[in-house]
Design a protein that fits this description.
The complex is a heterodimer.
Chain A (H helix, E strand, L loop, with lengths): L1 H7 L3 H26 L5 H18 L6 H16 L3 H28 L6 H10 L9 H20 L1 H9 L1 H6 L4 H23 L4 H15 L3 H26 L3 H25 L3
Chain B lengths: L1 H17 L13 H5 L10 H5 L10 H4 L9 E2 L5 H13 L8 E13 L4 E9 L6 E8 L15 E13 L2 E12 L8
Parallel strand pairs in B: 1-2, 4-6
Antiparallel strand pairs in B: 2-3, 2-5, 3-4, 5-6
The chains are: A mainly alpha, B alpha/beta.
Chain lengths: ~280, ~190
């Protein structure tokens, strides 16, 4: 098996898959903690459907670079969903559901009316489930992913304190002078970027798992925000790498395998948390 | 905390720059153990399950290629998992210039198409991705030793085909093809 893996690593697209997979897993786990604590766990699903709809429009318009449409549309949708901060919680579920199913239906309808390839079902299925998308990246796409991922990580690091404040108590943060509106806008934009990137890794339908599972797994063991974030990032990267490795060795769909690894990690962390609580530590 | 942040940024930058640089050479999917005929076949995915053979030598017609007696496949897709095969074929379609002139061996499903306008027959080896919802394939052109339809496999049958990768223009489109191809039947024996 190590020989086979080394042989696979000779392929540039396998190396690209690992690099992008690690970066996307890292970014999604960092913001996943924020989303879970703000009770917006399902926003990843909603935004990924919006991205799917935007991708359909871009394909119909025969845009050379579909990201030019997908990224702005997804960012705007994220801002609309999150812009009111605490108030958005009241409308959060309904808004996400409305935008999510509407965009998905609209996107699929467009692709049926204006098909861009002979295998429409295959294209849609591949986009939704990410069976081998991560292995079909070109070098330009890898560079773009890397730049966006670095930007996301830098934003998280530089605005860490403000993000923590807005996540736990937005009202108090506002009272202490934090520009919560700007912070929420920033979080929304970053989340949108991560969702668009993560579509390459696990597909549209499974993005939520990539965002929430590492955070929830970390929360089984740790309680402080910093510990949870670090643990979440570590788990997400490990699961992404192992998922890709299993996928290319066993011939399984990459997206589903990564999510399965995330679920397994959640199970193990839940068990570890039970043991930890049981021993009273 | 600041040190942790710097270390994290450094790790990210290393990951980002690790993928830089264009790889001009397409790596060989040649499994030395399988080519040299040794007994050890370290494949989790058994290529024999696809092609029905015990060994997987590339069986390209030497007279058509380099004049040597046996030419191993430069790109042997039969030793890869289904996910890797799909990805490799995808890249062949996207960047065919990296594969032109290389001997490609692949296993899949035989498919044929008759163009009633031109009267020409087209033959392809089709592979599916892991979810079996996406299919792609490569057209192949067998050597003159094969006569259609007697020496050709049945429609939908599992085949293993090896040929020299090439492209051709037809109208506004560029198509990929395996030229001077030879085909193995389901039983593993080479046909003609």
């Amino acid at each position: 098996m190590p020989d086979k893996l080394l042989m696979y690593f000779q392929h540039p697209f396998v190396r690209y898959a690992f690099i992008v997979g690690v970066l996307i897993a890292l970014c999604s786990s960092l913001l996943g903690v924020v989303l879970v604590l703000k009770r917006f766990s399902y926003i990843g699903d909603g935004l990924s459907h919006v991205a799917f709809g935007a991708m359909a429009v871009a394909a119909v318009m025969k845009l050379t670079n579909e990201m030019l449409l997908i990224l702005p549309v997804t960012v705007i949708s994220a801002i609309l969903l999150l812009r009111t901060g605490q108030n958005a919680k009241i409308r959060g579920d309904a808004a996400i559901a409305m935008i999510s199913v509407g965009a998905l239906a609209f996107g699929y309808l467009l692709m049926n009316i204006f098909p861009t390839s002979s295998n429409l079902t295959g294209d849609v299925c591949s986009t939704l489930f990410g069976s081998a998308s991560i292995l079909t990246l070109t070098q330009k796409e890898v560079v773009l992913c890397a730049i966006l991922s670095v930007a996301v990580v830098l934003v998280f690091i530089l605005f860490y304190n403000r993000i923590v404040a807005v996540t736990f108590d937005e009202t108090f943060a506002k009272a202490t002078g934090v520009n919560t509106q700007a912070c929420n806008l920033l979080i929304a934009a970053v989340i949108a970027v991560i969702i668009v990137l993560a579509m390459n890794l696990v597909g549209s339908l499974l993005i939520s798992a990539l965002v929430i599972f590492p955070a929830l797994s970390a929360m089984r063991i740790f309680s402080s925000f910093k510990s949870v974030t670090i643990c979440s990032a570590f788990l997400s990267v490990i699961c992404a790498v192992s998922g890709i490795v299993i996928s290319i060795l066993a011939g399984t769909p990459a997206g589903s395998t990564i999510v399965a690894a995330d679920v397994a990690a959640f199970g193990l962390c839940s068990l570890a948390g039970l043991i930890k609580r049981g021993t009273g530590r | 905390m600041k040190r942790c942040r710097y270390i994290l940024v450094l790790i990210v930058i290393i990951c980002v720059t690790a993928g830089c640089g264009k790889d001009k050479e397409v790596p060989a999917d040649v499994n030395p153990a399988a080519i040299s005929g040794t007994e050890e076949v370290p494949a989790d995915v058994d290529p024999a399950a696809i092609s029905g053979t015990e060994e997987v030598p590339a069986d390209v017609d030497p007279a058509a290629i380099s004049g040597t007696e046996e030419v191993p496949a430069d790109v042997d897709l039969t030793v890869l998992s289904s996910t890797m095969v799909y990805a490799e074929v995808y890249h062949m379609m996207v960047s065919p210039e990296d594969y032109i002139g290389r001997t490609v061996k692949m296993a899949g499903v035989f498919s044929s198409y008759h163009d009633y306008n031109t009267g020409k027959d087209y033959f392809a080896c089709i592979i599916s991705d892991a979810t079996a919802c996406c299919s792609q394939g490569i057209e192949f052109e067998l050597t003159d030793d094969y006569i259609y339809p007697d020496d050709y496999p049945e429609e939908g049958g599992e085949i293993c085909v090896a040929g020299v990768f090439d492209t051709y223009e037809d109208g506004d489109y560029t198509y990929c093809i395996l030229r001077e191809a030879r085909i193995e039947t389901e039983k593993g024996s080479e046909s003609t």
